[in-house]
Write a structure and sequence with these properties.
Elements lengths: L1 E6 L4 E7 L1 E6 L2 E5 L6 E4 L3 E7 L2 E15 L2 E10 L6 H16 L5 H21 L3
Parallel strand pairs: 1-8
Antiparallel strand pairs: 1-2, 3-4, 3-6, 5-7, 6-7, 7-8
Helix pairs in contact: 1-2
């Protein structure tokens, strides 16, 4: 078993023993099983999932870090939302605005990355809610 802890600046979202964890990182999605090699990575906006007792739970995470050590996974995220916490209409609006801005981009690279992150976060929310 793996001790999974997911924390945002506002609250502790998850603290339980799980069998597997799938985390969206800056280098792609990684699967974590017990006795995984130590790892620290930045999070990418996306869907984090974990399995406990044969049941898979999912949530959107964005911003922050994941640290894997021995049989513990710590996720320190700016945002962690389960399906019923997602404002679908707001996510659709965010996606449309970000797509429009990125489609006609002429700003700095840093600003582009901010808008791309906004788009990825909106897409992850819609994917999890099933409204993509």
């Amino acid at each position: 078993m793996i001790n999974l802890e997911i924390v945002t600046p506002e609250r502790k979202v998850v603290s339980e023993s799980v069998e597997t964890v799938m985390v969206p990182t800056a280098n792609g999605e990684i699967g974590i099983l017990p006795s995984h090699a130590p790892l620290i990575s930045t999070l990418r906006s996306g869907v984090l999932s974990y399995t406990s007792g044969g049941t898979t739970s999912e949530m959107v995470v964005s911003g922050g870090f994941v640290e894997v050590s021995a049989d513990k996974v710590s996720v320190l995220a700016d945002i962690a939302e389960v399906t019923n916490e997602i404002d679908i209409e707001n996510a659709k609006t965010e996606r449309e605005e970000a797509e429009k801005l990125l489609g006609e981009w002429n700003g700095s690279e840093e600003e582009f990355e901010v808008e791309l992150e906004r788009l990825e976060k909106a897409q992850a929310r819609l994917l999890l809610s099933g409204k993509n």
